[in-house]
Amino acid sequence: MKIGDWIAFFFLVISLIILWEFRQILLLLFTSVILAIALNGLVRWLQRFRLSRGQAVFLAISLVSFVGIMFFSLIMPPFLDQFQQLLNLVPRGYERFTRWIDLILQQPPIWLPEINLRLPGFTEIARQVGPLAQNILGNFFAVFNFSVNTLLQGLLIFVFTLMLVANPASYRRLVVRLFPSFYRRRADEILGLCEISLLQWMRGIVINSVFIATLSYISLTILNVEFVLAHALLAGVFNLVPNIGPTLSVVFPVSVALLDSPGKAFLVLVAYIIIQNLESYWFSPMIMQRQISLLPAATLMAQLFFARFLGFGGLVLALPLAVVTKTWLEQAVLKDIFDNWTLGQPLLESSDISESEQVLIAADTPPELPDSSPNDSTQEHDSDDGEI
């Protein structure tokens, strides 16, 4: 390697270290990008009605704000009331479950082997967890600091989203300029594919969550389980976190059903299993005809990886992060490098690069993006479409 290559490699390592130190801010920025892509899709749809981009952005933000206000004013009050009552019933359901297990162990069926098992009561669990909870809640400064940080992070995401939606083409060109000159056109294409993949994921996950919530509401209504609205909304929200979310959503309805009978709790469990399988193997593939398919093992590994290095935010955003990572690996690594890798030949053939780009590469000078060329793909995004 030449001295210039070593210097470039050194600065690359330094850049990666700096990015790692600011990973939480980058995670907030990625959240803003996801929200901006969703909002920008609504803006482009509104522009079909011959609205200017500024008018479409204002109308889109107004519509989203109106829907959010209506949701919190109409849905959240009964949900919070039911959820509070639900939290009071969960200990009773757990106590009934332990009594039922103890009864089975005292008089076990013939087919059940002898097991020496004793489940701790809810009061014992509360007694063990109580001191820890008191220490956490007793530290007022820590709770206040967490609340302020959460509020500031939400405000930062909101500001980032507005700035990205207001002028997405400029930010996209800025990202493209971070790549070498010969790869900028290709990087712009991959960014477009990432946007399409994220839009497909968002549309699919919203429809799937509504599907899960609706079927949960109908099933729990038929089974006559209390607090149906709270259970249904929790099932729809928890569906946003794959693998872990559906498992957590079944805890509350099963706990409440145990107050009536173990048989009803078993039917609730069976209903949730059927609903999740319908969503996974029938409804989701039907809705996402161009779905970004991730293997279940890859999804779980992505959750573990991003949760380990990025915390709770990484767990929540594991799937969109995995979608973007998958797109870049398929396009930049597999297609552009490995598929063109011929023994003894360069990875990028000279025929794949234009004459002007060959001159720029040979001169090793930083190129400038053309400002008025109609053939430059980066200029296509200056239009009113405004892709992120």
Description:
There is one protein chain. With 388 residues, this protein is mainly α. It has helices at 3-21, 23-46, 53-74, 76-106, 122-138, 140-166, 168-176, 184-222, 228-238, 244-249, 251-257, 262-287, 296-316, 318-338, 355-363. The longest helix has 39 residues, at 184-222. It is globular, with a radius of gyration of 27 Å.
Q: In which range does the helix fraction lie?
A: over 70%
Helices and strands, in N-to-C order? Answer: HHHHHHHHHHHHHHH
Biggest β-sheet strands, sense, barrel = none
Number of distinct helices: 15
Mean pLDDT: 75
Cα radius of gyration in angstroms = 27 Å
From the helix content, strand content and strand pairing, which structural class follows? Answer: mainly alpha
- Gross morphology is globular
Number of strands: 0
Low-confidence stretches: 346-384
In short:
This protein has helices spanning 3-21, 23-46, 53-74, 76-106, 122-138, 140-166, 168-176, 184-222, 228-238, 244-249, 251-257, 262-287, 296-316, 318-338, 355-363. It is an all-alpha fold and 388 residues long.
